[in-house]
Every structure is written in C-alpha cells, then in structure tokens.
Design brief:
By secondary structure, this protein is of the alpha/beta class. The chain contains 13 helices and twelve strands. Helices cover about 40% and strands about 20% of the residues.
Length: about 400
C-alpha cells in the first residue's frame, strides 16, 4: 500500500465531495447491505445503531465526507481516527475484516453513482480507503499489544461473572464484574469502557460498550447501566442475576484521565453520562489531587439520580472536590440543598459563570443534545479544543458527522 496518497488520488477524491454530499447516505446504506450479507461481518456491529435511528449509517456518511473534504489535511481528523480505532478494538475488529469493507464500499459507490463512478474514481477511492485502513490497522495493532502485555490484560473475549448487582436509581443498576478465571484484571484508565458480546436467547450476538464506573483496582470492574425502554441488551442485562457469565473485551477508549491534572478539572454529566465521571472522581480522590475538581451533574429528579450518596461521600474525603447537582423537575417533597442543589437545566450561562473556563479542563458525557450544547458553549467562550474532552454513547464517528 502507498506511503502517501498520490496527487491524482487527492484531486479525484476531493472532486467527489459534491457527489458524496448528495448521495453519501445512499452509498453507505448500500455498503452495509452488502456487508451484512456475511453473518460474521454483520455480528461485529452494534445493530441497534442500524435501526430506526440510522445513527451508524449517518455517522459513517459524515466521516467519509469529512475524509474526502480533508484529504489534503488529514491531521485534522487525528482525534476521530483515534476514537474509531479504540471502538474497533472494543469490537474486536481485525485486519482480515477490512477487505470486506473495501469491497462493499467500492461496489456501493459504483451502484449508487452509476456512470459517474468511473474506473479512475473507483481506483482513487480504493487507494484512499486502504491508506486510511492501514493507519487504523497499525494503531489497532498497538492497542491490542498494549492490552495483552498489561498486567491482567487480554485480547478477545474473556469470561466475567456478575459478582454483585446494585440498584442505583429507578433506571440505573450497577454490576460488579470479576473474571471467571480468578486472575487479575487490566487497570483501566478512568473514563474508558468495556465492550460486551451478549448471547441473548433468540437474538443475534449483541455488541455493546458500557463505561467503567469505578476507579481501577486490578481485581474487578463496575459498570452502571441504564435500562432503556427499547434497549434489547440493557433490558436483558437488568434481568440477569448474580452469577451470570458475560463475554468481555479489555478496556478501551480515548476518553480518559491518565495523569494527575495540572489545572482545575470540571466533570460535567447528564443522566447516565455520570458513569465515566464517577470513575474519574474516584480516581482523583484516591490519588489525592491538589487541583480543584468541580463535579456538575444533571438528572430529572431524586428517583433517577444514581450514585448521589456515593459521590457525596467521595467529595467529603477531599477538600479540593465540590459537587453541584441539578434536578430538572424535582419531585414533590424534594428539598433544595438536601436532595439537589439547583432546579432546572444546566444552562450555558451558569456553566461559564461557575467553572473557570479560562483555566479548567472539561470532561463531558451525556445525551447528544446535552453534549453538543456544552461543547458549543465552551468553544464559543474561547476554551481551547485540547481542554474540552467528551464521551458520548453512540457510533464512534457521530460527533464528527455532527
């Protein structure tokens, strides 16, 4: 494969941007239809992102368009490439899977664009695909190596047993997971996630990622999962008793803390987005950070507020930590200052006035509208992009598409 894209390929791919803007989603739908004819390839994907929401096809469409538009400045896509590589590792994507995608993509371009998909266009996109694929394959190989070389690390799917089930709120339950083999587990970076391959009776294998909600301890993991009304995997998991064995991939993800902060830290979450934040907060308290940490969380009310007492207990152990809880619609009988701090939504104005944007690092996780609003507000306020870190629960490249 070429070390660098040829000038001709760059020119041709750049020239296809208008066609991708008009037909990109149709190309991606056709590509997935072709790929999913192979059950082995189909089962690599989280099928919930290919349903009514169309999240994954739209995300990939945006990513392909961004790749074409930035073909002469691929450095701009480095964060997105890292995010995708981490997701691929969680899903156990391997080099032998890439040719299936290449074939399906080029055939889809040919099918949708018709006569406009000349041999020159197909050759250029083939070269561009493999250029990016080689970057991803190389990065994924390094991640797999780091995982298996770590104490307690592994590759592939490892059996974990549910050791404890902890109801956290009306919608969120925590599961303590310990390896069936009794060995140690890889110490994750606070904020990372585990990937699961669920074997649900009557269903195809279901792949899901869940953030680890505990600090690393080398012995177990805790995940805290919201039971989504239409969530096949989450509803099944909530019904599982202690002792259930789950297939788990090693921790992955580029959203994490890996060193003690040198600036004030703001942890901002909405709803079940609290899961990586609690892991970060636990770790910061355990490490004895001397930097101010402000954890801001928003949820509907007392019933949906998960892990509140645990978070307050952590804050009580560290003078540098303070907590602000928002309840959007407090229940009758809730007491301000006791059950929550402020009512309503976390507004842009409040966030900027209470989080020192000129000097803080922000870690954000929550529903897509919450995340987009927070990132936009901070960016418009002049917070540099390298101080705004975010995680969201969806396809790896959806934020790039947005």
């Amino acid at each position: 494969m070429p070390k660098n894209l040829s000038a001709e390929t760059i020119a041709i791919v750049s020239a296809t941007v208008p066609a991708l803007q008009e037909n990109g989603l149709a190309i991606v739908h056709e590509m997935y239809a072709r790929m999913f004819r192979n059950p082995e390839i189909r089962d690599l994907f989280n099928q919930s992102n290919h349903g009514v929401s169309d999240a994954q096809p739209r995300a990939l469409t945006g990513a392909i368009l961004a790749y074409a538009a930035n073909i002469e400045n691929l450095g701009a896509l480095a964060p997105a490439v890292e995010r995708i590589a981490q997701k691929h590792v969680g899903l156990q994507i391997l080099p032998e899977h890439y040719p299936h995608v290449a074939e399906a993509l080029l055939e889809a371009i040919k099918q949708v664009l018709g006569e406009a998909a000349t041999s020159a266009v197909l050759t250029a996109w083939g070269e561009a695909y493999w250029f990016l694929a080689d970057i991803l394959i190389a990065r994924e190989k390094r991640i797999y190596t780091e995982q298996v070389d770590a104490t307690g690390g592994w590759n592939g799917w490892r059996d974990f047993r549910i050791a404890e089930v902890i109801p956290e709120s009306s919608v969120i339950t925590s599961f303590i997971l310990k390896p069936v083999d009794g060995g140690p587990v890889m110490r994750h970076r606070p904020g990372q996630y585990l990937s699961f391959s669920f074997e649900i009776p009557g269903e195809a294998p279901a792949k899901r990622n869940y953030s680890i909600s505990s600090a690393p301890n080398g012995e177990s993991y805790r995940i805290s999962v919201k039971a989504e009304p239409l969530g096949l995997a989450s509803r099944w998991l909530h019904a599982q008793p202690v002792g259930t064995v789950l297939k788990v991939a090693a921790p992955a993800g580029e959203f994490h803390l890996d060193r003690l902060p040198e600036r004030p830290v703001v942890l901002l979450s909405g709803g079940v987005g609290l899961t990586p934040m609690v892991a970060m907060l636990e770790w910061l308290v355990e490490q004895g950070t001397n930097q101010p940490v402000h954890y801001i969380h928003g949820t509907h009310d007392r019933n949906t507020h998960a892990m509140r007492n645990h978070v307050r207990q952590l804050a009580a152990r560290a003078e540098t930590v303070r907590i602000t809880d928002f309840h959007q619609t407090p229940l009758a009988g809730e007491v301000a200052g006791q059950d929550y701090d402020l009512s309503g939504l976390i507004t842009d104005e409040w966030l900027l006035a209470n989080s020192s944007p000129a000097m803080s690092d922000y870690y954000i996780c929550g529903p897509r509208p919450f995340l987009r609003a927070a990132v936009a507000a901070l960016s418009l306020a002049g917070v540099p992009s390298d101080r705004i870190h975010y995680e969201f629960f969806g396809p790896a490249d959806e934020m790039l598409a947005a």
